[in-house]
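User: I'm putting together notes for a lab meeting next week and I want to include a structural view of one of the chains we've been expressing. I don't have a solved structure, so I'd like a prediction I can at least talk through. The sequence is below, exactly as it appears in our construct file.
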Amino acid sequence: MKNRLFVAAMVAVSILGTGISAQNAGEEPTVEKLLQRLLEARGGAERWDKIKSLRIDGTWTAFSEDMPMTILRMRPNLYRFEHTVLGAPSILAYDGSKAWMQGAMYGAPDGQQIEDSWERNVIEESPFVCKLLDHAASGAEIELVGRQKAEGKDAYVLEVRLDDASRETWFLDADTYLETKRVSMTFDLFSGPGVELEMETFYMDFRDVDGVKIPHREERHFGTRYRVFEAASIEVNPELNPDLFEVPEQKEKQEGEES
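Assistant: Thanks for the context. Below is the predicted structure for the 259-residue chain, given as structure tokens.
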């Protein structure tokens, strides 16, 4: 169990080089070391392996309105985001193989699988510990391209090449090794089908929760959109029913067949 997550990431990651100047080459850590330090900064593999589920309660900001939210996570990669959109109860979720949505604002009052490009947005929320470590474990190519300022602090810059030919850029704080910023692409449901925009995600307010570090605030900027996710409380290892993550219409169909 010990260091299982990190070992998996190290086996899968492909290192392309450091991409930094010769005079600093001896001073900069490798990609492997940066990922190890990130995992350690987050609490370490041994502590994370003991956490099987998470419940995050707080608020999210969208359309200039603060609204209540609950995020449920369950290993290996189950995800459920309960929230309101302009006063309407809504859910975005991932059952480990399919992303789905429910809510009048999404045009799915009874719940349905997401079958367009927006599915990627939901699946990207599912990694249990950290998206960057998930990329490494899945075999993505990761390159250290140097150091830059991010939010006024020195940061290591990692470029990630994904299987679908898209790319992400991650910034790790040079002192804490925690995530500071991520630049990626996202689909905006409310701008129309297939509308893809560059998004900046900022990770803030890391706090200790049962020995692991979890950001309590995320800010996302894409186009004219501004989203904030702020945790008021985080519960470790709550009892969660796996049925919560299943597509409602699929669950009802299975229950009908059994009866």
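A couple of points you could mention at the meeting. The longest strand covers residues 196-209. The CA atoms of residues 208 and 214 lie 7 Å apart.

User: Perfect, that's what I needed.
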